[in-house]
Design a protein that fits this description.
alpha+beta
Length: 342
């Protein structure tokens, strides 16, 4: 997945625990082939017991300094290579066979990274924050990109939080290219956490929903409003709805299937809110059909909702008729129901 989210344990995300954790001097690495050419699936394991953690991500093969394709394809070949990033370096050794490898690493923080942050007005990160940034590949290029897009200057803790939530240089550039300059890092984290990525933004653009605010994007994503749902409404005749209307329809189960079924029963109101209320009151095609079979063919949606609210069913209508009431009006049926006629 292009915008893979970091696979970190809950301990990495908890600020109080992060402050207490010691930085691992080393751990294990595992490399397997990735789905895309020129990339590998890298897994890093470190820590012990309740503080043990796994980190996994697709990374470019070029990040593995000193490791050749021939060594990776060997049979039990011993290897030595480095993963060099702005915040630190992993020095790795182990073996490869048939494109898969494993071994151990040692970690060395980069003191120059701290010095460069200071030049940009950012105080020194804790050892654990620097390790988090190294693991996620958060470097000076991200800091400079945030400054270029006129974000508030982040703290080291905020950079570490971005790292653990998958907000990297590529993400910031991609949403920035689509017009989203959110000013502060927490807004970026919120969008990333809620699954708002460039693909989602582009899909809404293609569906006719452009220039939405960051909050609108998050809200649509949270409520399951996607291009397929929008298309189902369009095909049912409800076009160019506002974002709040889309969310409301989605939340209340008014989708293309429900709308189509209601149309078949002869109900296609111009205002979709009528369908929301009908759905909420339990008025669906099966209920409408049951009342039609009982002789009530031309009820409005409002009348159907009223009948549903008062517990009027086909069975009750049949019992009313069996007692000699003929074919009473809907109001009469409701009065009989309210008076406790069984």
């Amino acid at each position: 997945m292009r915008f893979a989210v970091l696979l970190l344990t809950v301990f990495l995300a908890a600020p109080m625990l992060s402050a207490q954790r010691s930085v691992p001097s080393g751990g294990q690495w595992l490399i397997e082939p990735a789905d895309h050419s020129g990339r590998i699936q890298l897994t890093i394991r470190y820590g012990e017991g309740r503080y043990s953690s796994n980190w996994g991500r697709d990374v470019p093969l070029s990040e593995l300094v000193g490791l050749s394709a021939g060594e990776m394809d060997g049979s039990g070949t011993a290897v030595h290579f480095k993963i060099v990033r702005s915040a630190g370096t992993l020095t790795c050794e182990g073996w490869f066979a048939g494109g898969k490898g494993s071994g151990h690493f040692t970690y060395q923080p980069n003191p120059e990274f701290v010095a460069e942050l200071a030049k940009r007005g950012i105080s020194a990160p804790t050892a654990w924050e620097q390790f988090q940034m190294m693991m996620a590949g958060v470097g000076l290029d991200l800091v400079d990109e945030l400054a270029r897009q006129k974000y508030d200057r982040p703290t080291a803790a905020e950079l570490a939080r971005m790292a653990t939530h998958g907000v990297d240089l590529e993400y910031v550039r991609d949403i920035g290219a689509r017009g989203y300059h959110l000013r502060n890092s927490e807004s970026l984290v919120r969008m990333r956490d809620h699954g708002v990525d460039p693909e989602f933004i582009e899909s809404l653009n293609s569906a006719g929903y452009k220039d939405l605010s960051a909050e609108e994007l998050v809200r649509l994503r949270d409520h399951g409003v996607n291009p397929e749902f929008i298309a189902s409404l369009d095909s049912a005749g409800y076009k160019n709805l506002g974002t709040e209307a889309l969310v409301r329809l989605r939340d209340h189960g008014v989708d293309g299937d429900y709308i189509g079924d209601m149309k078949e029963m002869g109900y296609a109101p111009s205002n979709p809110e009528e369908l929301v209320q009908s759905r909420d009151h339990g008025v669906d095609p099966s209920y409408i059909r049951s009342l039609k079979e009982a002789g009530y063919e031309r009820l409005s949606l409002q009348e159907l909702r009223r009948a549903r609210d008062h517990g009027v069913t086909r069975g009750f209508i049949q019992r009313v008729k069996a007692r000699g009431y003929g074919t009473p009006s809907l109001d009469e049926v409701i009065r009989l129901r309210d008076r406790g006629l069984e």
